[in-house]
Amino acid sequence: MRTLEVLSSSALIQTRFHKSSNHYPICSPLSFFNANPLMNSSFQKISVNKSRFKISSTSSSSISSEPIINPSSLENEFQEEEEEKFDWFSHWYPIIPLCDLDKRVPHAKRVMGLDIVVWWDRNEDKWQVHHDSCPHRLAPLSEGRIGQWGRLQCVYHGWCFDGAGDCKFIPQAPIDGPRVNTFKKACARVYPSLEQNGLLWFWPNTDPQYKNIATKEKPLYIPELDDPSFSSLMGNREIPYGYEVLIENLMDPAHVPYAHYGIMRLPSKSPKLDREGGTPIEINVQRLDKTGFLAKQDRGYNKFIAPCVFYAYPNMTSGSGSLSSMGSEKAAPEAVKKRQMLLIFLCIPVGPGRSRVIWTFPRNFGQWLDKVIPRWVFHVGQNLILDSDLYLLHLEEHKLIDAGYTNWQKACFVPTKSDGLVVAFRKWLRKYSGGQIDWGTKFKGILPPTPPKEQLMDRYWSHVVNCSSCRVALKGLRILEVALPVVAVVAIGIVAAVKQGFLASMAVRISIVTLAVLCFAASKWLSHFIYKNFYFHDYNHALR
């Protein structure tokens, strides 16, 4: 019974069996905010403590209960004068969870239009982030290797670089000639980087004045991600639509019962207005400035901290038994009141029409689930959720670009409060960044063309190759897929070859043949499972 209680209280696993999901448990963290109003925690309103760069609690008296953005008066909201510009290249950006990095090889990544290479410097015992371009002939360093002396080697001509970017070896330079490897132009460009909260972060500027930026300014610190009493599995995926659409989608709770119908289990309300069960959602934005904004929802709070962090946390009672300043729920049992959970999304701008999302949902209950269930099992369900609206969001972005970056408020009609967070984000983007990301001189703002659906929704290159757990799982399942028919063939061969003895018994022979048939069937099913969950899973809303 205790096991069932933990399973039912966990917001990370919502089990739903249906044909399109291959009968595996569907993880629905994105629906937690709506689907689990009774989950209890001691979290209160969260704000950024700039002096310590971490999430901290503040009293509710410091925040007005009156909304500052009203979707019904959107036209007037967007007519405000632009204020001081947000500098997109003066902030820390997460690159990837540390658990998904392989120390044996360099990793190519792109953030804010910058091509970077991440590699493990065993001499300094840390991850380094360099510009992904060799100063010799501009070959990508990410296609190189970690050399025998622990340096990053360009495989085009063998130039080697240390963690500081200094060129340590040029094979073509004469030993008795000038030391051309010491010239400034021979050095690789290095970005400041640091490890925090299980993530690798970097500062997108190689100017020497930012070399020690980590001593002056750090990324947002989230204590729960380092708290051993919390479980916080991470995942990441490359997204074929832009940063703006990615954040809008995560901020939009009203789309969940429709875009993710049949995948994410939501609480049923009676009477339902339609099959999917959509309802009005009260969202009021209570503070908006250059650093982001805070909003109150029916069952809790959401916060956007520019440029990357968006998180939500439910309206819960405090551990002392008194009513939280955020809600009016009745006191719950002590064991329940201490449960805490956050939904954290790190939204990373990659380039026009490209973004990356890192997600984690730290919680201090049901930790044993993460020890029993492999991380890739959670990713199967989470990738299905991302896929279910991926294609329509990609097409939506192209329509928004056709309308123009600065015409969002005219192209879109958002009359209800359920769009409050989306309106707030667009207002923030318009007010502090002219309605779009400032890519510098890198891009002209033209979106890449729409590829075939199989390529657009590909899971292997967008997730599996970037996830250590899914890579290992795919390798193991592939081996099993090959082994099953081999076992079947061997079993049939034994039955055919042996005519006497124990194996001559009809019952035994039938059992072996049955085993062979089951192995063949399991191999076929496994092949289908691998393809749908590690390569491509189509999604047709009309047939749901």
Summarize the structure.
The protein is an alpha+beta fold and 544 residues long. It has three domains: 93-215, Rieske Iron-sulfur Protein (3-layer Sandwich); 223-262 and 281-315 and 339-456, Naphthalene 1,2-dioxygenase Alpha Subunit, Chain A, domain 1 (Alpha-Beta Complex); 471-535.
Note the main attributes of this structure:
disordered N terminus; globular; seven-stranded antiparallel β-sheet; 20 strands; 2Fe-2S; Naphthalene 1,2-dioxygenase Alpha Subunit, Chain A, domain 1; oxidoreductase; 27% helix; four-stranded antiparallel β-sheet; Rieske Iron-sulfur Protein
Q: What count of helical segments does DSSP give?
A: 14
Strand portion, in percent? 15-25%
Main sheet: strand order: 14-20-19-18-17-16-15
Shape: globular
Main β-sheet description = 7 strands, antiparallel
**Would you identify the CATH H-level superfamily of the largest domain?**
Naphthalene 1,2-dioxygenase Alpha Subunit, Chain A, domain 1
Please mark out the parts with pLDDT under 50 across 5 or more consecutive residues, or reply none.
1-65, 316-336
Q: Class of the largest domain, according to the CATH hierarchy? A: Alpha Beta
Residue share in helices? 25-40%
Describe the fold and architecture.
With 544 residues, this protein is α+β, with helices and mostly antiparallel strands. It folds into 3 domains: 93-215, Rieske [2Fe-2S] iron-sulphur domain (Rieske Iron-sulfur Protein, 3-layer Sandwich); 223-262 and 281-315 and 339-456, Alpha-Beta Complex (Naphthalene 1,2-dioxygenase Alpha Subunit, Chain A, domain 1); 471-535. The chain is 27% helix and 18% strand. The chain has 14 helices and 20 strands. The protein has a 7-stranded antiparallel sheet. Strands 4-5-6-11 form a 4-stranded antiparallel sheet, with no helix packed on it. Strand 9 and strand 10 (167-169) form a beta hairpin. 38% of the residues are buried. The model is unreliable at 1-65 and 316-336 (pLDDT under 50).
